[in-house]
Design brief:
This protein is 19% helix and 28% strand. It is built from five helices and ten strands. Strands 1, 2, 3, 4, 5, 6, 7, 8, 9 and 10 form a ten-stranded mixed beta sheet that branches. Strand 2 and strand 3 form a beta hairpin. Helix 1 crosses helix 2 and helix 3 crosses helix 4.
């Protein structure tokens, strides 16, 4: 008896952006809440004409945005790459979009092949709370000392135990992470915290941002961030900064995968007045 030939499976990588304001994070939930993963998989399944499951580079939390999320999925459907972009986008809500697609080797994994991930945290400093950017930036009414914040943050560079900056719900086996760069800059009323690391713990960027804000408003000295790092005690650090200011902006992979440049770095503007 002749064996039934199995259809060839292709692995496709996608670049995805989304406004996380209306979603309960990236990851599909058992209790049926709305997630970005669910929307992506439904749209892909319609184009592929079979059920599709995706793996992402970084699982973002409720209210967190992405301009440079990367995912992969396997399919036996033969489609042009354009269909995985334009076709899928016709089935996605307005706040989720695929902006590139590329066939990759079966050894590629959006999560485990990634070498670096970059996040941007955006704060608006002004007297009145933001309206236009209410779901896109964090807000403080204080004037922040961004030079002090930047200087304080440099102690986090390199390989360290980030227990002081991990969520109590974090499921990672250990808290060791490598931060390649962290910068705090200001443009008008907006403050940007840019951080690149090999991987991140649950709430790590938001917890770092919350502690840097304490330095920025003068409640804590420059040396405090280093003290927190040494203490390895989450209860001693600052509060978790709000989710709406956080963006996953880029994921880096080895050159062998030849992926497109992932994402844009968001900048605010047009409403800088006090």
């Amino acid at each position: 008896m002749n064996k039934i030939e199995q259809p060839q499976t292709n692995r496709i990588a996608l670049g995805v952006e989304y406004d996380g304001s209306r979603y309960c994070g990236w990851q599909m939930q058992l209790h049926g809440t709305r997630t970005v993963q669910d929307e992506i998989e439904k749209a892909l399944s319609l184009v592929a004409d079979h059920k599709v499951q995706v793996v992402c580079a970084g699982r973002t939390d409720t209210g967190v945005h992405a301009t440079g999320q990367v995912v992969h999925f396997d399919t036996h459907a033969e489609r042009k790459l354009k269909a995985w972009v334009m076709g899928v986008n016709t089935h996605l809500p307005d706040d989720v979009c695929v902006h590139w697609a590329k066939q990759v080797d079966a050894g590629f994994n959006a999560r485990f092949s990634a070498t670096m991930r970059s996040y941007r945290y955006i704060i608006q400093q002004r007297v009145a709370r933001p309206a236009l950017y209410s779901h896109r930036v964090s807000w403080v009414h204080n004037n922040l000392d961004t030079s002090a914040m930047h200087a304080a943050a440099q102690v986090l560079l390199g390989q360290n135990d980030f227990s002081s900056f991990r969520s109590s719900a974090c499921q990672s086996e250990h808290a060791m992470r490598f931060i390649r760069s962290i910068d705090v800059t200001a443009e008008g009323s907006f403050v940007y915290i840019d951080i690149q690391a090999n991987a991140f713990l649950h709430h790590m960027v938001r917890n770092i941002a919350g502690s840097l804000l304490k330095v920025g408003i003068g409640e804590r000295p420059l040396t405090w961030i280093g003290e927190l790092l040494a203490l390895k005690d989450r209860t001693r650090a600052g509060p978790t900064a709000p989710a709406q200011g956080l963006y996953l902006v880029a994921v880096q992979y080895p050159d062998e995968f030849d992926l497109p440049v992932s994402g844009i770095v968001p900048r605010m503007g047009g409403c800088d007045g006090l």
